[in-house]
Amino acid sequence: MFDGLDPVILARAQFAFTVSFHFIFPSFSIGLASYLAVLEGLWLRTGKQVYLDLFQYWLKIFAIAFGMGVVSGIVMSYEFGTNWSVFSTKAGPVIGPLMAYEVLTAFFLEAGFLGVMLFGRSKVGPRLHYVATCMVALGTLISATWIISVNSWMQTPTGFAINAKGQFVPAGSWLTIIFNPSFPFRLVHTVIASYLTTSLVVGAVGAWHLLRKREDLHARKMFSMAMWMAAIVAPIQIFAGDMHGLNTLEHQTPKVLAMEGHYEASPKGAPLILFGFPSNAEGRVNYKVEVPKLSSLILRHDLNAPLPGLKDYPRDRWPPVPIVFWSFRIMVGLGFAMLGLGLVSLLARVRKRLYDWTLLHRFAIVMGPTGFVAVIAGWVTTEVGRQPYTVYGHLLTAQSHSPLAAPAVAASLLAFILVYFFVFGAGVFYIFRLMARTPVVGESEPTHDPARAAGITPAPAIDAESGGRG
């Protein structure tokens, strides 16, 4: 049934599906962990119950999102072995230790404090509990740091040599590998994206409850905090994205040319193509709408600066331009929509209509999921734009895969799709149910009552006064 399909394409589709599904949860939990730390810190500083209520409200949602992120991430480590064993063998001496550092630092830090954060507020005292919350938030950031370092090395590899077996091995300082040329830009861009994604979700939930009850203090507080975050972070993210783009132009020029749709060189200033339909086969963008010389201004800060074209590079080294072209526009378009939401919220705040402007609240609800869409679109731009390489400029994707049989890969891909949508769909549905519930005064922490498991029933507590006698 699947014998006629390309097993490499299927393996790429499988990894794209699992990693895209996975990153939905870290992009939320990274920002939400920091938001929880802010809420608990404000409660400790001010003593206002509303901050503690919101902390407990979002803590339940964080627990589910964090758990699904961990589970969905485990799958990818197996895919490295089953589908990409050649890549693992050749790049393992470099990326293996980096991924191990993520486990030894971030994962152990999160595992050590997560239980205290979820269930220990009444056990350890408020200040120590706040330390646990901060450690979990720090762990999510450390985890992002190591993973982005690994992926950035694949984009802009440095600090390595290739041994007689064709393996990438460290050469010199590990700092050169970790802090490769694209790493700082990509880390900042990714972390800010997580914060922006979280602020949009929190803002959408707050707006939803404001539409139901304008006077709800909890809804007002979370909506106000989210809109401040969107208004401040969205322009910073656009600036960070611009800096990341300039770095990419320097180190991965064909990727940027694919993003811009430039097949032909522009010796006297390149136009910015707003829309169009790129065709690798024809080597041009059909039905394009463009602004003269604006691309050169953005990429070179000079209207007349020359830019190369994809035709200056071998055709077999071009990325799939239509995918990169459109995913980039989705990401950028949503980024400016987020900026618009932040600016409109500032206008509403100045006019003292932040809590009763129905149009703004509906706008915020519509924008709620767009952070996830923008994050996925950004990763598609990055990963598809790196093609045809796994390690840019050194190891082709066509040389990185395991000996694969198309039916086996197709069957596992279908199994992943079914299981993911069933299991994680149930988790997302439960998160929506929690979000739909209005926060209340005295919000409780997640329950941790013992439950019957494996046929064992916990013994009842011993009555101290009776000494345990019946």
Automatic annotation (TrEMBL):
Protein name: Cytochrome D ubiquinol oxidase subunit I
Example GO molecular function: heme binding
GO CC terms: cytochrome complex; plasma membrane
Lipid bilayer topology: Multi-pass membrane protein
Keywords linked to the UniProt accession: Cell membrane, Electron transport, Heme, Iron, Membrane, Metal-binding, Plasmid, Transmembrane, Transmembrane helix, Transport
GO biological-process terms attached to the record: aerobic electron transport chain
InterPro entries tied to this protein: Cyt-d_ubiquinol_oxidase_su_1
